[in-house]
Amino acid sequence: MAVSLTKGQRVSLDKVAPGLSEAFVGLGWDIKSTDTGYDFDLDSSLFLLGANEKLLSDNHFIFYNNLISPDPDKSVQHMGDNLTGAGEGDDELIKINLKKVPNEIQKIVICVTIHEAQQRKQNFGQVQNAFVRLVNAQTQQESVRYDLVEDYSVETALIMAELYRKDGEWRLNAVGAGYQGGLQALLDRYS
């Protein structure tokens, strides 16, 4: 049975999903019935950070134009961009092999941004039912889930969660932090 987290809650993956090595991070959302005159295009991205909480290189920013981490094992793989978010379940998926993520990567920040939010006059207040979940790739069982319940009425970028190493194990932090300034605000923070 999956563990459901609230904002700010942290959990050890060794405790909630013992032996987990390959995982899918599923992200999903629905658009409220608001008409801005444009379709909504939400994009997931990952920042692979070193101990200094900064990107190890430009190639450690994983998104729809850079789908695979630069390590030889390709331990992090973005499964592609969903342009509409239509349908049930996960809208975007990221595959992570936790056992093969290089040691210099100390934290994986999982984010969602709204493409061209300022031009389209869109924000996360117009989005509902947003979630991030961690699924065991071998068993297809959901291990951890975080449903966002806050109203982000001016934010155009969200840090959904962080996977990070502590005491030799992976942990997950349900962050739920909103930012104005879209993807650029996050790039500025982690570059």
Give your account of this protein's structure.
The chain is mainly β and 191 residues long. The chain has a single domain, classed as Sandwich (Lipoxygenase-1), CATH 2.60.60.30. It is built from three helices and twelve strands. It has a six-stranded mixed beta sheet with strand order 1-10-9-3-7-6, with no helix packed on it. A six-stranded antiparallel beta sheet has the order 2-12-11-8-4-5. The chain is globular and about 45 Å long.
Helix content: under 10%
CATH third-tier fold name: Lipoxygenase-1
CATH architecture: Sandwich
- Major sheet summary line: 6 strands, mixed
Summarize the structure.
The protein has 191 residues and is mostly beta strands. The protein is built from three helices and twelve strands; from the N terminus they run ββαββββββαββββα. Strands 1-10-9-3-7-6 form a six-stranded mixed sheet, with no helix packed on it.
